[in-house]
Amino acid sequence: MTNQLIKEFIESVIKGTLEKAKSVQQVEHRLLKGMFREFFFDELLSRLLPSHLQATSGIIVNRDGDQSNETDLIIYDSRIMRPWVLANKDMVPIECVVAAFEVKSILNITEFRDSHDKATNLVSNVWYSDQWNHQDSIFLPPLFYLFAFMGEGLPELNDPHQGKQWMRESGPNFNGICVAGKYSWMNMQATGWTAETAESGSVEEIIRFVAVSVDNMRTVSNVKHNFFANEHRDWIGQYIRRQPSNPR
After folding, report:
1. If you average pLDDT over every residue of the chain, what do you get?
2. CA distances to 51, 66, 157 from 114, in Å
3. Predicted structure pTM score
4. Hey, which of 24, 140, 205, 213 has its CA 20 to 30 A from 103?
5. Rounded distance, CA 240 to CA 248, Å?
6. Is 158 helix (H, G, I), strand (E, B) or coil?
7. Model confidence over 38-83: pLDDT tens digits?
8. By percentage, how much of the chain surpasses pLDDT 70?
């Protein structure tokens, strides 16, 4: 009975959030993006994340100075490090980043490619280029998700079989995407890309997207925290101390 009440509550929260998103479509675009981001985190994710996982927007950096694109929503483990605020932007150390989200009003192919370029930059130029991540083979890179509140989505993803191949080829650096009212696609460890298609009156595609992403974030944060807790590591010093040009 209790489980059913929780399910009904989460479902009602999601439906209420979608109604809020629809009601502000005419708001000026520069304000709209921030509102959708707040709707997604404040109404959905924040209710389910453990307390040590915090959120901000801004730029992800590594100790070599490499930077991500500006990111709608960054989930970080506050037990490891916290962001620094520079020029009114949150700069989040890669070591503590668990996941990044792009939150859109409507998803089209341009938005998809732009978001995937951001994911590729994060993984290839910020995470892989920083040698600390190679010191332990299980130290996972940040997850990257894409969520859209409205729209028809991408026709390539309407068919489960075609969509599976298309996501392998076109979205390898995503961990999941969701278009409300259409589908969610999640890259599952055991089965690869799998879809949940929306049904009339249901929000199961969103519930699945949120549930899987939160569980994955919890796993990544635990791996990162255990990695840091096993022995002393001078990570903060790499950011705030002057480093000699020829260290001995």
Report:
1. 86
2. 31, 19, 17
3. 0.90
4. 140
5. 19
6. coil
7. 778 887 888 889 999 999 999 999 988 899 999 999 999 999 889 9
8. 88
What is the distance between the alpha carbons of residues 129 and 124, in angstroms, rounded to a whole number?
7
Residues pairing with 140 in the sheet: none
- Report DSSP letters for 72-124, one per residue: EEEEEETTT---EEETTEEEEEGGGEEEEEEEEEE--HHHHHHHHHHHHHIII
What share of residues in the chain are helix, strand, coil (percent, to 5)? 45, 25, 30
**Model confidence at 35, in pLDDT bands (50, 70, 90)?**
confident
Please, which residues have CB within 8 angstroms of residue 166's CB and are 6 or more apart in sequence?
A: 156, 157
CA dist 234 and 199 (Å) reads 50
DSSP 142: P
* φ, ψ of residue 20 in degrees (nearest 5): -60, -45
Tell me the one-letter amino acid at 198: A
Give the DSSP H/E element, type plus range, for residue 10: helix 2-23
Q: Give the C-alpha separation, 88 to 90, whole Å.
A: 7
What single letter denotes the amino acid at residue 148? A
How does pLDDT run across 129-157, given as a tens digit for each residue?
Answer: 555 544 544 467 899 999 999 889 999 99
Residues 6+ apart with CB under 8 A from 77: 52, 53, 96, 98, 221, 224, 225
Asked if 176 and 116 count as a contact pair (C-beta separation under 8 A), the reply is no
